[in-house]
Amino acid sequence: MIESLTGFAVVGVAILVGWIIGRTDLLGEHGRPVLARLTFFVLSPFLLFVVLSQADVRLLFSAMLPVAAIAAVSVFVVYVAVARFAWRRSTGEIVIGALSAGQVNSNNIGIPLSLYLLGSAAYPAPVILMQLLVFTPISMTILETVTAGRTSFPRALLRTLTNPIVVGSILGTIVSVTGLELPPIVMEPAQLVANACVPVLLISYGISLYGQRVLAPSGRRRDITLATLLKLFFMPIVAWAVGEFVFRMPAHDVLVVVVLAALPTAQNVFNYSQRYGVGETISRDTVFLTTVGCVPVLLLATYLLA
Fold it and tell me: 248's torsion region: left (phi>0), alpha (psi -120 to 50) or beta?
């Protein structure tokens, strides 16, 4: 059990460093937006290219992929229905809230936890593929449309497809599917830049926490609470039910899909909210609450299903 907490400790230290940087104002007023743009446009595309290009094709398109998709879409549907018809939220806030509820941290936390809890760092690959090649283009196209004023849908779609994150994901998947062996002169520089993504993203998130109160009265408390509950409880239960009773997966594979579904909200969602200037409170607080709250959920799931 102690080893399984290592991934959380690594993430926690990086976030703490960011909080200290924010408290001391080490980077000045422009530090956080600069780090956010660096992560979004440069570091994340390299990381996603490296992760997907090195993924096992058989695992990428295994039964874990449809189970993860069903669990995520179920969460999206519930959140969108409540936020749209009960609370009348704006389209941008609904997109960020839905991603906060259903997009998991398959990179920063998923890879180390998969290694420590499940014995292999490769299990998050199908989730990474689904989120980056399906959810990210759709959500970014919507955000581009609603935040860019009069931008038409085709133009927003074109901007999304040429977004560095999407391009990096597509190129990485092509390399994996074709089995192309890239020479070290290509992969090693890419790996070097990719290695900077996770710490910079976590430090940027830590900076954003300074001076902020989780579930502040002026924030979207209902939205954050709903997204957190869906992420921590509803999504793992759906993944378990679909994996166990629909796909009849082996016990270990059921454990894998439940652990992946119980991962906290992806920090990338916070990065998107910063980039498009919408729903930042929802994503920031949900990331924090799910990162803390998923610890007992993951340990309980491992104990019950292992």
Answer: left
